[in-house]
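Could someone model magnesium ion with this protein?
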Amino acid sequence: MAASVLSIRPRVVGTPPASPQTTPSKSSHQVVSVSLFRSADFNGIPLSTESLEISSTRLGSGAWSDVFAASSVRSRQESGLGLLTPPTTPTKSTFPSNTRFPRGEIYAVKRPASRSAKAVNIAEARILTRLHQIDGHERYIVYFRGIDPTSGHIALDRYPLGLEDYVIQNLNKQTPEARTTTLITILPTLAKHLVAGLAWLHSAGIVHADIKPGNILLDPSSPSSTNPSSTQSLFPYTPLYADFSASLSTTPPPSPTITSDGNIDIVDANPATAGGTWDFLAPELLTSDPLSSRPTPRSDVYALGVTLLFLIVGRSPYADAPNVFLRREMARLGKPLQCVYDDERFEGVVKGLTAAAARGNSSLSAGVEGAARGMGVVEGIKRAVERKGEGRMGSREWSAGML
Ligand SMILES: Nc1ncnc2c1ncn2[C@@H]1O[C@H](COP(=O)(O)OP(=O)(O)O)[C@@H](O)[C@H]1O
Ligand SMILES: [Mg+2]
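Reply:
Sure, complex below.
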């Protein structure tokens, strides 16, 4: 899916399409025109503009938006699926064809749920526009297709599931033994990719600020060459960071969003205050001190540590809390590891990984005497969920230190 951009024929237009940008099609499905801009203020000639028809298939909802499956109007016309009048001289489709999703609905359109949500989407699209221009985006983050700056619709490639779905619908349904084997096999590669992706994001000057299993989508179409075959057969996906609605830039100071009607919107997109979960927030973000409550690269590292713990134990480390207040308090104490030490699933995975590492090391020491030992997954998690931000390892250090 990620490589498919090469096949897109950019339709260069002088100015962004005039409003209204969204028009109902004959099927009463909405058609939205999205553009990919070079500049994060969406000025200048777009690199490409596409009309997408939004279907009624809802892929998910969050605090700010509803996400629907969508298809390219052009490819629908050309394939005869079109609900609009087909072109008289059909041209060969330059859009990626994909049989995984019915009716060519291979895109996801994120529709803002309210006026303030539109400002959140615009801010997210600014970050996606920046990241889209940096090498590596296709490996680490969802594929951005464009924004309609007037309505705030964001277009992305569509992915069939997220990491949270995988844990609940697949991993947790395996027998305990199979589950442990799966995790021991897939964790080193999966964690390595997520850590490398986070280091990439931070080098690009972006703090994600809402890392959790629900905001990591899984791409099944990536080349398997990057995964060892054992991982590939058990986990045939590449994990990609998604949902940059709470993200911020570490370089320029945060700027307010100027809406199309000239008003300035300052939106607090903090995931927790927006009705999200506290469980992945670093303890320093759960204090009342405004100076320390701004997300940082280190708070992302913490969130990724808790995300990997979620994967291992199949639920939040704080899932046992009797009520939301105590749950928040547990998150604020910042001891997620202590909450999973007694969990059989955690114990099984630690034992399995330790045994695998010991096997690996004996063959290593037989070959390369004194070869440097890297950091294992569990050791990495321990150093990532260090309670105090100052003592916590950075994403680059984590990535460089991994086995
Ligand atoms: N590109 C996509 N492909 C498939 N599903 C998606 C995609 N983007 C989002 N979703 C679904 O929609 C949900 C909400 O999207 P997200 O970007 O996390 O928005 P929010 O900021 O509202 O949480 C996700 O958890 C996921 O289930
Ligand atoms: Mg989300």
